[in-house]
């Protein structure tokens, strides 16, 4: 069962986080999603956590955007804030899975709890192979989350999720997260929380 919290806007939810969670971020406006992601990370840095942002976007451009957002340079210099660029992998399910597991090992290799991580490990979920690998990895991470050691936010541009079964994929993703942030446009949206 779940409950909707339409009065709990995404930014207020991010600011209220106290216990480790596996959070899905479903968005339509990439700029608004980035604001939510950066605030999530900045809050972690202010709490003394190490933070990681892994994306298919250019890592240098992301660092510049984070600096512009107000994340101080010193966090990058001390490696408390790290940005990784994930390369898109092509091929069949096994090739994509192998590439994703290699990226996960690189990203998680040196992380010491407590930490915050923003990442979706399969860059391209517009294909059937990509979304199936992503679903498998999300389920695996969620099932073992008690051993994870930090907060995890997984961003999804709704328009880029494989379209033939998009509703089904979203339902499955929802089941593999503690909470879902729905952020359609700047200042709008809500949070859907699983009941304990």
List keywords for this structure.
196 residues; 8-stranded mixed β-sheet; globular; disordered N terminus
How would you characterize the overall build of this protein?
- The chain has 196 residues and is an alpha/beta fold.
- The protein has one domain (2-194): Rossmann fold (3-Layer(aba) Sandwich).
- Helix content is 42%, strand content 22%.
- It is built from seven helices and eight strands; from the N terminus they run βαβαβααβαβαβαββ.
- The chain has an eight-stranded mixed beta sheet with strand order 1-8-7-2-6-5-3-4.
- Helix 6 (128-143) links the parallel strand 5 and strand 6.
- The protein is globular and about 40 Å long.
- Helix tally equals 7
Kindly estimate the percentage of residues that lie in beta strands according to DSSP.
Answer: 15-25%
Broad CATH class: Alpha Beta
Reported for the largest beta sheet, the result is: 8 strands, mixed
**Spans of 5+ residues with little confidence (pLDDT < 50)?**
1-7
List the helices and strands and how they pair.
Elements: E1 2-5, H1 10-16, E2 22-27, H2 30-46, E3 50-55, H3 59-69, H4 73-77, E4 81-85, H5 93-108, E5 115-119, H6 128-143, E6 150-157, H7 166-175, E7 179-183, E8 190-194
Parallel strand pairs: 2-6, 2-7, 3-4, 3-5, 5-6
Antiparallel strand pairs: 1-8, 7-8
């Amino acid at each position: 069962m779940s409950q909707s919290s339409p009065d709990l806007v995404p930014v207020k939810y991010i600011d209220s986080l106290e216990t480790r969670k596996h959070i899905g971020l479903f968005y339509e406006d990439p700029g608004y999603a980035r604001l939510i992601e950066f605030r999530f990370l900045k809050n972690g840095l202010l709490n003394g956590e190490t933070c990681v942002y892994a994306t298919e976007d250019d890592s240098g451009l992301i660092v510049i955007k984070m600096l512009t957002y107000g994340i101080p340079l010193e966090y990058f210099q001390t490696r408390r804030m790290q940005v990784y660029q994930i390369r898109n992998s092509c091929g069949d399910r096994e090739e994509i899975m192998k590439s994703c597991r290699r990226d996960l090992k690189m990203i998680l290799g040196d992380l010491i709890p407590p930490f915050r991580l923003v990442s979706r490990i399969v860059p391209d979920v517009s294909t059937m192979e990509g979304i199936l690998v992503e679903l498998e990895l999300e389920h695996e991470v969620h099932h073992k989350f008690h051993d994870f050691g930090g907060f995890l936010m997984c961003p999804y541009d709704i328009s880029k999720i494989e379209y033939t079964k998009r509703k089904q994929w979203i339902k499955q993703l929802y089941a593999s997260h503690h909470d879902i942030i729905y952020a359609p446009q700047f200042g709008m949206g809500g949070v859907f929380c699983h009941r304990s």
